[in-house]
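Case study.
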Amino acid sequence: MITAFLLRSLDRKIVIAIALLLLVAALVPVLNLMTGPTNPLHVPTYIMSLFGKYLTYALLALALDLVWGFCGILSLGHGAFFALGGYAMGMYLMRQIGTRGSYGDPILPDFMVFLNWKDLPWFWYGFNHFWFAALMVLVVPGLLAFVFGWFAFRSRVNGVYLSIITQAMTYALLLAFFRNDMGFGGNNGLTDFKDIIGFNVQADGTRAALFAATAVLLALSLLLASAIVRSKFGKVLVGVRDAESRTRFLGYRVEHLKLFTFVVSAMMAGIAGALYVPQVGIINPGEFAPANSIEVVIWTAVGGRATLIGPIIGAILVNGGKTIFTGLFPEFWLFALGGLFVAVTLFLPKGVVGTIAQYLGRRKAVSKAAPPVAQEDVIEPKIQAAE
Amino acid sequence: MYRAIKIFLITLCLTFSGLTFIGLAVPGLPTSSEVRAEDDIHVLIDALGVGDFPEREAAIKTLVASKDPHVGQILEQLSEGLLYVNSDGGPVLLQGGTDDEPTYSDPITGEAAADVDPDMMIKVKINNALRGVIGAATSQLTLMSPDRSARLAAAQGLLKDADPANLDLLNAALAAEKDAEIKNTMEAARAVLLLKTDASVEDKKAAIDTIAARGNRDALTILTTTLETAPDDLKPAIQANISTINRSLALWDVAQNVWYGLSLGSVLLLAAIGLAITFGVMGVINMAHGEMVMIGAYTTYVVQEYITSAFPGVADYSLAFAVPAAFVFTGFVGLVIERAVIRYLYGRPLETLLATWGVSLILQQAVRSIFGPTNREVRNPTWMSGVFDLGGLSITWNRLWIIVFSMVVFVTLLLLLKRSAFGLQMRAVTQNRRMASSMGIRTGWVDAFTFALGSGIAGIAGVALSQIDNVSPNLGQSYIIDSFMVVVFGGVGNLWGTLVGALSLGVVNKFLEPFAGAVLGKILVLVLIILFIQKRPRGLFALKGRAVEA
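After joint prediction, the assembly is written out as follows.
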């Protein structure tokens, strides 16, 4: 049944995207590990790590697209779920350091010894097991999203108000994680990782495996998101986005639909964060900054809202641009990013993918000399009207 | 230019102080009585060099009794061991210069003394007994000093560091004192001294009441320390007074917290009130609002620099020029943003949010490129610095001015919206755009100027914030979330809601801080607002009627 549910979701574009991702997952590590540095096909490790990071961002953007593109919830706090997933993974990695830390304490991470703590706080229990940490990567963001969403959707907080309180949520978490007594390393966050499931985090092989895992998980998430969106449930979801009151009057429990999507999306963001941390080697409260969450929105918008593939492309494009730009003209990156925000909202409201799809659709329609019909496999995002 | 002014000012200061110095050193033409007084004092000073310690003590007492204005100076020189006398007798002289090459001069006029043989000069020695005499004489002198602030300082010093030996001195000073505040302090000091002597229980009870009447933290400390050593029949009185003081201090603490809260609230109000117009009235989410505040602060800086260089005379009032300048400039920036970006996005709040966020990044980076990433210094004018006490509250002038200023801005804005033709059109467009348009109102024009107005108000807020916060490119970002919270909490589209929201958030924040700490307090406030929005999704003062569902 599940297979049928997943298979039904496959249209041509999603199949191509998933195939591409799986190909990348297999090929890049091979090119990195099997070829020598002189080989023209060689992929240097730093490039692979960089793109691994982009792929985690792509997963985060995909998660946002699920709620924003298909459910109309513009979350300005998705960075919080990403960071929570990252912290869960970071805690596991901290516990793996063991006696190799500067203070050599077998149980307590360095910063706790530094703060003169005697015992491990209760919320650090269990993080020495990978399975537990992996579970927490899903559970913690999911739980936060559930509690937050349950309150918010039940009292019909929507539109701009919801955006603002999600922003307040991530801001509150930012302030909280900066505190040393929270027990998450305060300002410095968690870093200095050594091992992940027994493999050295710094080793090329581990990095290649992490890259492959990221690409595969991104492909799986894409499959899941696409399955959700193309199911009957997904159609109702779009109904919620475009005409919430009408959907409610038709008898659907709008708040339940929203809550489910929000939680799934938060978990995806958590996975992205968990994959991000071992590849980057640090997690600190800066990840909770409201500005980060807003940046995710622009990746999604650039790629194309409600296209699923768009956010992946957008995240890679914008972040690639950022890497190149900050290297060449560090002064102007904020100008470029700001200009991007303005330009995309004004001139490219459907994003890169949406605009191309529209263009192709129009050309096809013209060649058939028929009035333009929306392609069946592209769900046109209808811009939310003012409430 | 700026440098030239600085040099000019420094020269001016130097010349002035130089003149005062000369004025002191050469006191014009001495009248005959002054000459005699100076002769008298010289005789008394020279007496210090004669005989041994007992004679010297007598000489000091006579010197003090003369009430000459130079006595303090002489006693200081004596206790520092700077006075020398020829071993064969003669005038007492002040030693200067270095140890190897000492110079000698008159201790009062500073005139160099001629024909001094350094080898023959010996120090006018003092021992501990003499030091005590000198110390008592010095405090007596300051307690009796003609300078009001010196007397007050001496009385406060006695209050803090009470020595029963000074009791007689204090009694004498008290009898002569006319100033009410100093007298008050002296009486308190006398009471503290009395408690340390073996005065009668009645006297001590009266003393305790005198101290308790002061009712501040110092009085509490004094009473708590005396409680330990006090005889049993005094203890209940002290206990009762301590608890009274504690109660009144607790009340003042609450008042102080309310004051701090109002102060924070007025800052929030200033930051949020422009947003209340753009978000509340127009429904535009302006994420660049914080940057408007920041631009206002930088305008203040530019105006200040211009005025100090062009019109140094009015430099202290540059803020008065900065307010209109910031309003006009940020209003203009707002107008440009509305015409260039926002007008294409009406009715699409989420897109507006993204576009204005982009604008905010551009403005931030622009300011960073022009002024650099470091903080710029905006000076506090003299009429805004300093503190004054009101009962148990200590109130800083700049906070008081900001509260007054925010209220003025609020009232002006309210009048503008409710009483002017522009306000009428603005409200008409808010309530029913198409109908307003049908009545001949140019809605596009109203939109543009409403946005400019909101931005201009943000600029004015920047002028005020430049006085209490760092003027840096990140200034705006630290206020944007708080401002949104205020507007959302107070209720969109209602200026009164913004006022109540800002002030109550400020007060709640300050009341949470002592229990939870600044950061945790802020987190709690955020969580409370998030919960509050669940309960009243449209804020404290929600608009009622069809407009809500439109």
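Observations recorded in class. The first strand of chain B starts at residue 83 and ends at 86. Confidence is low (pLDDT under 50) at residues 15-35, 545-550 of chain B. We will return to this complex in the next lecture.
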